[in-house]
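Quick start: read one record
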Amino acid sequence: MRLSILNTPVFCWLVISFASLISSSLYATFDGQNSFTPRFQFYVDQSGQQVFDDIIHLPEASFEHAPDAGYVGGYNRFVHWLRFTVPASDEAGETLILRTYPTYTDTITLHMPNSVPSHYTHMLNGEQVENRDVKTDKAFIFEFTSTTEPRTFYLSTQSTNTNTIVATLYNKYGYARALRIDYLLSGLFIGLLVTLIFLNLGYTRWSRDKVFRYYLLFVISSLLVFLAINRLLFLPSEWHTLESQLPQATTLFYMWSLALLYHALFEFNKHRLQRILSYTYQLLSFIGIITLGHGVYVEYMPWFMMSTIIYLIWITCIAFMQALKRYRDSGLLFFAVVFGFTGILGTALSLVGILSGGMVLLHSYTAGTLASILVLQRIMSSRIREFEKNHIALQLEKNHIQDLVTRERQEKEQKAQFISMLSHELKTPLSVIQMGLNQPRLSTIGHRHVMQAIKDMSVVIDRCSILEKVEDKVNTRFQVIEMVEFLNVLVSQTQEKERINGYFNTGQHLIESDPDWLKVIINNLLDNALKYSPDQSVIDISTHSFSNRACIKITNTTELGLPDSEQMFDKYYRGKSAHSKTGSGLGLYIVKQLSLQLNASIEYEATSNLETDVHKVTMTLCLPETK
C-alpha cells in the first residue's frame, strides 16, 4: 500500500480544518454584538501578602495595560491581579458568561461588584473537583448578569505553571456558538493527529526505521500536549492531582521527542560537537521533569525556554545550511523546522515575558505544530518511497523513455514548424519581388515594396542564421559601453529614425556588455516596435537607472491584438494578429536568450484603452552598471 494514496484523506482533513477555522473566525469576528474581549490592566503582587481590599485601593498608576489579546505573566509564583471593565448593557439582567483560558491555571478568582457600593462577590473557579466534574466546557467560566451601568471586575490568579489569562465575555447565544466552534476545531485537530498516528502505524517500516519511529513519537506527544492543556484526557477522579501537572510534563515530553527526531533527521551522531549539543538539550528536558517532581518547575522553566530558543535557532541554521547544499529533503525539512520554531518561539517568548499576548501563547503552538507535522509527514512519505526501489526504478525508467519520446516529438514539431515558417515568411516577399521584376517600369511605391521585401527576407535569414549560436553559449567580448552614446548611434542607423524619439539621461550610463550582441537585442526590439505600430506613430526610447542597473525602455502603440505574455518569448511563437506582418517568430526569442547570456533582463508590459482599442506596449531591457 502506497503512502501517497493514504495521504489523500490527510490532505482533505487539512483543507476542511483550514476552511472551518477561517469561516468560524470570520463569523465570530463580524458578529461582535454577542461577545466582548476585556482589555486587562494588571498588577503583580510579588509578596503574595496583599488582600483584595489592598488591591482596589491601589493608585491608578500601579496598574499596567495588557495587550488586547490577553495577559501573560510568565513562570512565577506571584499573585496576579487583573482589572477590567464590563460596559453598560441595554438589557439589564441578561446572563453574561466570562470564559477564561488556559485551563491549567491552579487558582483563578473573579471579584464581582454587587449592588452594595464598594462590595464585591468572590467567585472561585480553580482546581475545585465539583467545578470540573459538572461542567461541559473545557475552559473556566463565570456567570453573572448585565446592568445598565459599567462595572469594574477583578481577576486574581496564581499558578504553578504559567500565569496566563485569555478571556472573552459572551451572552448565552455567543457562548453556545463559541463552544461549538471550539469543540469543532479541537475535534478536527485531534482527529488529524489520530489519523496520522494510525496511518503511520500501518507501515511496518516504523519498527525498523529510527527516524520514522521518532516522528511517530513526536506526533503522539503533540496530541498529548493538546489534550493535557485543554483537560481532555478524562482521567479518573483519583488522578485529579496529577492532572494539574500533565501540561508541564507533556510539554517537556514534546520537546524531548522533537529533539530525538531532529537528532535522527540531521544525523548528529556523525559529528561529535553536534551530538554533544543535541544530547545536552535532551538532558535539559529530563531535568525539567525532575524539577516538576521536586516543586521547582516554575524557577527552572524560564531558563529551559531560553535554552529552547537557542537550541531551535541552532537547528534552524543547520536546516538552512543543508537546504543551501540541497541535501535529501533538505528544503522540506527546513520548512518543517521553521514552522515548528515559529510555533514554539511564540509560546516561549510569551511564557518568559518577552512577548506579551495570550492569543499568541494559545494558538502559536497549535498552528506551528500542525504545519510542522504536515511537512514532516511529507518527508516520511518520501522515506517510505525510498524503500520501494524496484517500483521507483521502473517508474524512473518509464519516465525517462517518455521524456525521450516527448523530446523527440517536440524536436520534430519544431523542425516542421521551422520549415513551415520559412516557406510562409519567404513566399510573400518573393512574390513581391517577382511582381516587381515583371513590371517594365517600377514605380516609386513599387520600388519601396520590393526593397521592404528584400529587407524582410534579410531579417528572416539573419535571425535563422543567428538562432543556432544563440541556443548555444555565444562567444562574448565584454567591454565598457557608454549606453547613451551607443543608443544614439543605433538610432541614427535605423532606417525609420524619424519615427524614434530618444529621451536619454544627461549623465553617463556605463555598462559592461558585448556591443555586437547588445546591438542585436536593441535592433530586434526597435524592429518589433516599428513593425507592429501604426505607420505614422512615434516610438519612444528612454534610459534610467534602477538598483545599480541601467535600463532601456522602448515604448510603442499598436492597434493589433496583444500577444500572450507567457509565450511571447518562446521560439517560433507569433500572436494571432502578428501574422498580418512578415516575421519569423524568432526576434523576441533571440532577445530573451541573449539577455540571459549577457546578464541582462527583459520585461514586457502592456496597457489598453478600451474606448479606442489602442494598446501601449513597453519593453524594458536592464543591464548591470559597472562599479
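The first strand starts at residue 35 and ends at 36.
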